Every structure is written in C-alpha cells, then in structure tokens.
From TrEMBL, chain A:
This is Rod shape-determining protein MreD. It comes from Hymenobacter ginkgonis. Keywords: Membrane, Transmembrane, Transmembrane helix. The chain crosses the membrane at residues 12-31, 37-61, 73-91, 111-134, 146-168.
TrEMBL record, chain B:
Belongs to the MreC family. This is Cell shape-determining protein MreC. Pfam families: MreC. Residues 158-305 form the Rod shape-determining protein MreC beta-barrel core domain. It comes from Hymenobacter ginkgonis.
Length: 175, 338
C-alpha cells in the first residue's frame, strides 16, 4: 500500500471513530455508570508496525479532540497518550512464538480469541484506570469510581469486539 | 554529537511520551481550576456548529418530552397570569387601599387601570397598551427584570451537557454577540445551573454547579442561615450544604436559596430542598444533603442573568478589604464563595 493511501486510510479511520463517538456513542451509558470510549478503537487497531512516536502523537491528537469537545482540558489526551505508550509493550508481551508476520494486524480472526481478548482487556483496563483516577483526582468515592471503571471496561470492550466482528476481514491478506 | 543523536533516537518514545503527558496534564490541571478560562474549550466556532447540529438531530427524537416540559412551564406561567377571581376583591372591614392623595380607593366603582385623580386628557394622551408585556420573569422563585435594556436576561438553549463526570460543563447557543461574557450566572426556570466560563461569538461554555470546585453562597429561606452549597461529585440530583452551625434547627423540606453574597446569582434563586441532615462527631457543622431543584438530566432552556451591581460591588469590596490585614470579624468575604 502506498504511503498516501495509508495516510488517507488512517485519516478516514480517525474521522469515523471520532465522529461516531461525538455524534452518537458518547450519549450512551451503561446503567449510568459505564461509558463506551469508542474512539480508542482508532488507537487499538493501528497497524502493528506503527512507530512509537507516531502512535503517541496520534493518541495525543485523538485525546485532545475529545478534550475540546467535552471541556475536559487534557484528561482524554493524558489517558490516550498513556494507552499509545503502553501498546507496544503489550504487543511485545503477547508476541507469538514465531514473532509477528508482516501481514499480521490486530484482528480477532487472525490472532485468535485468546490473544485478542488479553490485548483488549489489558489496554482498555489500563486506560480506564488512568482516566477515571485522573478525573477523580483523589480517592474519595473510590467504590463508585471502581464500578464506573468496571462497567466502562465491559462496555468499551464489547463495542470494540463488535467492531472487530463486523468490519474486520476474516481472511488474512488485506491487513 | 553522534552519541547525543543516537541517544535521542533510542529514547524518542519515552521522551515524547513524557512530553505529551506533561502537556496534557498541564491542560487538564489548568482547566479544572474553576474560574480560569481554558485555552481550548467547546465554545469555539467550529465545534459549536457540530454540537448544535447534533442537538438538532437528537432533539427530534425527544420532541414529546420537550413539549411536555414547555407545557408544564406554560401552565405555571398562565396560572400566575390569571389570578383567581377574588384577587381584586376588597375586604369590607379591614384597612382599604389609599391612593397618593389619601382618598380611599373604591375599585369596584372604577375599571381597573383607570388612574385616580387624572383627567380624561391625560388618559387620551397616553393610551395604555392592550396587553402589557411581562416585565419580570420568575426564575427559580426569584423575580428578575426581563426587559431591562442595560442588563438583559438572555434565554439560551443547552446544546451540550455532561452530568456524570467529576467536573461537568454545558455549552449554550448564545455568545458574545448576545451580550454574554465570562462570569455571568446561568439559571433555569427550576433553579441555578452554573456560571459562564468562556464565550465565543455565538457559543458559550458554562461551568455547571456540578463541578468539584463549585461553591454557591446560599441561605435557608426560613430563618436566613447562611451556608455554602457544594457538589460531592457522585449524584447529579443532590448537593451538600455546608457551614450550618450545629445549634441551628433544621427541618426536612426546608427551601434553600442563593444568598446573593457572591455576585454571580441574584438573591433568592431556588437551589433545592433539604432532604436529610446528620450531625457528624468531628465537625462543627451539620452535614446537610439537598435535593437540587434543577433536573440536569433534562436541562433544555436556560437563562443567562446579569447581576447588576456586580462590577461596582466587586471593586468596592476589593478596595475596602485590600489595604486591611485580614481580621476575623464578620464581613462579606473578599473572595465570596462561588
């Protein structure tokens, strides 16, 4: 795939994830406790070989978009940058026995359920932990925050899983 | 030099990470100070259009609910407009009204609106408008001038609203072009809403009272005890009332209104009713839970209110308090709780 094609593709993904989140998904909530951080899909499903610096900048850009929309200053950005920084570590942790192929991508059909679920839950969990504790700024309502974190992890993970099952190719090849 | 470049390349990830985190946290921390306007916020022109459009679409799906809200408000206003039929009746033995010359007013002899003691000429010269427009608006139980040219009460539409974060904000569809400026209070028909934080030409960002650093100067309407209303951060329908001394008696259902000590809200605007109160052993004050009058989950129409003596009062208070050393006597605090 050419570089320009790649850029256009990623730009489109950025617009789709951010647009869907702002226009529709941010209004949904699970039991008034959990939210779907749908825009994380953009960062989670980036190509495996993306350089760390690029990932960090993309995470910052995506987070700042959300911060401007929801007046949270830099809260989304801080958590998203953390996610972008942790992603290569988690990928390294989960390397298959014979390493990643050139065609591998974050795809539940290619990498298997076990790999994908560990990847998803680990990164989403760390992101939500950082996000909600940072938002709270203290440990006052810790029980409430914990239920928020757990409900949000469930909601976001299920949404990401649905995105994977609906929109990602079953056969390898397109990457 | 080569080593330096190699070093930078080797640790580019870590350094960029730290840099971006510091920037984000800086933005976050400066944003959550309650008064200061943030550099980036949702009242900028492009995002305002997106949010307004989103609201238009989502409104379409709750037209019934909106209509119902407006109908109930209309019904309440009509009730005030049409007084019961005995409202103008005069008591037969109690003191009756007197006009400015000391004559007893017999209202049943004169049609309502005729001016006593003024000839036909004056009446002809100044014909009364058929239906006088209301000059005050009842917002949260307080009467506010609706048509004062110098201090307009600006109706606005909420186009973005968060209520489940620790710090909540709203976006309104009015801006500097409508005379909105940062620091003005925002009310709804049911009570207080927040305070304008930043404005663009056509949109405004409002810090909701559901904010971890919000504090509204309040008083209990029954006996006038002053306190301060805060939001504990968990539930958007309840707030806490602080600084009510333990010796005071409290009653469930007491009305709590703004005290007018801070120049953001006018005096007497409804905040909520006392729902429960407990005496905690380690505190000198009651811990009072209020049920908020404003239902933030279906906030649609709000009013931005100008509190008129504000600039003058702020400068006066600053000039009075500034040169003195802080004394513990009971004066209006220099930085009133917001």
């Amino acid at each position: 795939m050419s570089v320009v094609g790649m850029l256009v593709r990623q730009l489109l993904r950025y617009g789709l994830y951010a647009g869907a989140y702002i226009l529709l998904i941010s209004q949904l909530s699970l039991f008034d406790r959990g939210w779907c951080f749908f825009y994380l899909g953009f960062l989670l499903f980036l190509p495996l070989g993306t350089p760390v610096a690029v990932q960090l900048l993309l995470g910052f850009a995506m987070g700042l978009t959300m911060d401007i929309t929801y007046d949270t200053g830099g809260l989304h950005a801080a958590a998203a940058v953390l996610l972008a920084y942790l992603r290569p570590w988690v990928l390294r942790l989960l390397t298959p026995r014979d390493g990643y192929d050139a065609q591998d991508s974050v795809n539940v059909h290619q990498m298997g359920w076990q790999w994908f679920m560990v990847y998803l839950l680990l990164l989403v969990g760390l992101h939500h932990l950082a996000y909600f504790l940072l938002e709270l700024g203290s440990f006052r309502h810790f029980g409430l925050t914990l239920t928020r974190i757990l409900a949000s992890i469930a909601f976001t993970s299920v949404a990401m899983l649905i995105v994977q099952l609906l929109f990602f190719p079953v056969r390898r090849g397109r990457g | 030099m080569r080593n330096l470049i190699a070093f930078l390349l080797r640790y580019q990830g870590v350094m960029l990470f730290v840099l971006l985190e510091v920037v984000s946290l800086f933005l976050f921390v400066t944003n959550s100070t309650y008064q200061r306007a943030a550099f980036f916020n949702s009242s900028n022109a492009y995002l305002g259009v997106v949010l307004a459009r989103r609201k238009e679409i989502s409104d379409y799906f709750r037209l019934t609910d909106l209509n119902k809200q407006l109908l109930t408000e209309n019904a309440r206003l009509r009730q005030q407009l049409f007084p019961p039929d005995f409202a103008h009746r005069e008591a037969d033995s109690l003191p009756v009204g007197r006009d400015t010359l000391g004559h007893v007013i017999y209202r049943h002899l004169r049609p309502l609106g005729a001016v006593p003691g003024v000839g036909l000429l004056a009446q002809n010269a100044k014909p009364k408008p058929a239906a006088p427009r209301p000059d005050t608006l009842l917002l949260g139980g307080a009467r506010l001038a609706a048509q004062d040219v110098a201090y307009p009460l600006v109706p606005a539409r909420v186009i973005n609203n968060s209520l489940r974060s620790v710090d909540n904000y709203l976006t309104l569809n009015v801006g500097a072009a409508d005379g909105i400026e940062p620091g003005l209070g925002v009310l709804s028909a049911a009570g207080i809403v927040g305070r304008v934080k930043a404005v663009s030409a056509h949109y405004a960002t409002v810090t909701s009272v559901l904010h971890s650093k919000s504090a509204v100067a309040a008083k209990i309407k029954r006996d006038g005890t002053f306190g301060s209303v805060k939001w504990p951060g968990d539930d958007f329908s309840h707030m806490l009332l602080d600084y009510i001394p333990r010796q005071n008696r409290l009653v469930r259902g007491d009305t709590v209104v703004t005290s007018g000590y801070n120049a953001v809200f006018p005096e007497g605007v409804f905040i909520g009713t006392v729902e429960s109160f407990v005496k905690e052993p380690d505190k000198n004050f009651w811990t009072v839970t209020l049920r908020l009058g404003t239902d933030f989950s279906r906030l649609t129409y709000v009013y931005v209110v100008h509190n008129r003596p504000r600039a003058e009062r702020d400068s006066l208070e600053a000039s009075v308090v500034a040169p003195e050393p802080p004394t513990p006597k009971l004066v209006v605090p220099k930085h009133p709780p917001r």
